[in-house]
Amino acid sequence: MSKVWYCMRLLQPTQAFFSTIQSVMYKFIWQNKRPLLAFDQLCMALREGGLGVLHPKMQHLVLQTRHLRHVFDDSHADNYFISSLLQYHFSLITPSECCPTLPFFASAFRKQELNTPLPIVHSIYKAFDHFQLSPDLSTISLSVLLILPLTYMLTDVPDDHWLQKQPLLPASCFFLLIPLHVAYNYEELGNFRYGRDSVDV
């Protein structure tokens, strides 16, 4: 099955493919005998009464976590090329090139013209949602956060509120980011001791 898992990591299997793989695994386990357990029960852990068989659909999601690691963690030198390639690809199918991971936080941005049903990115999104991953949002700039829909900035919005009819309304329609430049009068701040890397007051 290792070859099948490898293909599933790179491709977007159809429902018919999953059904075929499940049927082949089922027949192999029972060797043309009358099945005694349902397939879902066979996939349960040994301590729960199953055989620990890998479920094709769940295994497909687990395999996508490797892509997620490449997308959100490019600190390793051996992953830099793949990480750069994936981030560039996501930047082509997202509304903001400066934040290619934006659709992970706002599912409304996953429906783009270049994001057709066939690419593996849909499986990566599905794995992200299934395992409820929580990347560090502190790395996202405020300017990028303003691209998110306004509904993502608010909590407990009533179902009959007008905002529910505008799911893609950007937060920038209500919030403004105004950079402030503060000039210091060094003569009024007292005595300074200048070092190579810092200034102490």
Features:
8 helices, two-stranded antiparallel sheet, mainly alpha, 201 residues, 38% helix, elongated, 2 strands
Question: How is this structure best summarized?
Answer:
This protein is mostly helical. Helices cover 38% and strands 2% of the residues. A two-stranded antiparallel ribbon has the order 1-2.
What does this entry look like structurally?
This protein has 201 residues and is an all-alpha fold. It is 38% helix and 2% strand. The protein has eight helices and two strands. It has a two-stranded antiparallel sheet with strand order 1-2. The C terminus is likely disordered.
Average pLDDT metric: 77
Secondary-structure element order, N to C: HHHHHHHHEE
Q: Which sequence of strands runs across the widest sheet?
A: 1-2
Principal-axes shape call: elongated
The number of helical elements comes to 8
- Major sheet summary line: 2 strands, antiparallel
Question: How much of the sequence is in beta strands?
Answer: under 5%
Structural class: mainly alpha
Distance between the termini: 66 Å
Output the radius of gyration.
25 Å
Which range best describes the helical content: under 10%, 10-25%, 25-40%, 40-55%, 55-70% or over 70%? 25-40%
Q: Which spans have pLDDT < 50 for at least 5 consecutive residues?
A: 185-201
- Give the total of beta strands: 2
